[in-house]
């Protein structure tokens, strides 16, 4: 559940790929399903993303934050870090996917964040099925 993020403003400083003109984002949790939240650009009201913690749907998900990103976000403790993945909704919600290759890393203690791209050797992709049933149907 993402309730603890409700109402927070995160400075992503143009790090979301393809949305370099968007810096500040507000977070609002989806009332109907508190595993999801809206990440809404504060500069451009028509730009927003549905996000989720990847660990909710992929408990085995693993990533390493590079030292340069740790420094840029001023991460002092792993307890300050929240990882989010952007969701792409499908024709039906059960066909939705999530981007595990380029997660958004948040430092909730200082309101800084950044989308990072995992190294090419990563086993994750940009369109991983959101729901386990969809993963099984696709042979994963």
From TrEMBL:
Keywords (A to Z) from UniProt: Bacterial flagellum biogenesis, Cell projection, Chaperone, Cilium, Cytoplasm, Flagellum, Translation regulation
The keyword Cell inner membrane belongs to this UniProt entry's keyword annotation: no
Chaperone is among the record's keywords: yes
Subcellular location: Cytoplasm
Example GO biological process: bacterial-type flagellum assembly
Pfam families reported in the protein's UniProt record: FliW (PF02623)
Any Gene Ontology CC annotation: cytoplasm
Residues in the signal sequence: none
Stated role: Acts as an anti-CsrA protein, binds CsrA and prevents it from repressing translation of its target genes, one of which is flagellin. Binds to flagellin and participates in the assembly of the flagellum.
UniProt family annotation: Belongs to the FliW family.
Quaternary state and interactors: Interacts with translational regulator CsrA and flagellin(s).
Name listed for the protein in its UniProt record: Flagellar assembly factor FliW
Species name: Paenibacillus baekrokdamisoli
Gene: fliW
